[in-house]
């Protein structure tokens, strides 16, 4: 099962559209994750129409219309692997312990907000993933997104993709 992870798209404020390279990944993904800060509903509509399965939440920059359509936290079980999705996890320091306590029944936590790619594992075994942002690199050298594979109840082939400058 192929996964595509993107967050913090901030359209149309940070970019006019999702990058073509990212859009080209959609037909190959069995599940797409988006952890908020969409800003516009058009991006949600686009992903809902093109994705086989979308697991998504709202973020701190999302208004009432997006909050009415999306939860603050989402859960999915994929081939026995338990995922939780949330926009914000707080400061980097202490993140693993804080998230392991907040999501004790999850195997993988996907989150956004910082625009900083993140891939760590808490002492409890919780894997924390943040793909950065495909449209707003902020203090990072590149805009980014993640792909991964779920097979036999395990997460594999987690790959950070760097997008060319716009």
Q: What does it look like?
A:
This protein has 166 residues and is an alpha/beta fold. The strands form 2 sheets. Strands 3-2-1-9-10 form a 5-stranded mixed β-sheet, with no helix packed on it. The chain has helices at 20-25, 41-50, 64-69, 95-102; strands at residues 2-6, 31-34, 54-56, 73-78, 81-86, 108-111, 118-121, 127-130, 144-151, 154-162. It has one domain (2-162): Purple Acid Phosphatase, chain A, domain 2. The mean pLDDT is 91.
Topology (SSEs and partners):
Blueprint: E1 2-6, H1 20-25, E2 31-34, H2 41-50, E3 54-56, H3 64-69, E4 73-78, E5 81-86, H4 95-102, E6 108-111, E7 118-121, E8 127-130, E9 144-151, E10 154-162
Parallel strand pairs: 1-2, 2-3, 5-6, 6-8
Antiparallel strand pairs: 1-9, 4-5, 7-8, 9-10
Keywords: Metal-binding
Domain Calcineurin-like phosphoesterase: 1-150
Family: Belongs to the metallophosphoesterase superfamily. YfcE family.
């Amino acid at each position: 099962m192929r996964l595509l992870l993107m967050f913090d798209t901030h359209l149309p404020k940070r970019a006019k559209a999702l990058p073509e390279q990212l859009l080209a990944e959609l037909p190959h993904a069995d599940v797409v994750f988006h952890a908020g800060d969409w800003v516009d509903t058009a991006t949600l509509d686009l992903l809902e129409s093109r994705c086989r399965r979308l697991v998504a939440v709202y973020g701190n920059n999302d208004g009432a219309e997006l909050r009415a359509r999306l939860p603050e936290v989402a859960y999915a079980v994929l081939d026995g692997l338990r995922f939780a999705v949330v926009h914000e996890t707080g400061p980097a320091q202490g993140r693993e312990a804080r998230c392991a306590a907040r999501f004790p029944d999850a195997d993988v936590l996907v989150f956004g907000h910082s625009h900083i790619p993140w891939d760590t594992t808490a002492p409890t075994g919780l894997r924390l993933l943040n793909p950065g942002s495909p449209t707003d690199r902020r203090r990072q050298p590149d805009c980014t997104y993640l792909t991964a594979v779920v097979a036999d109840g395990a997460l594999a082939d987690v790959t950070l993709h760097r997008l060319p400058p716009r």
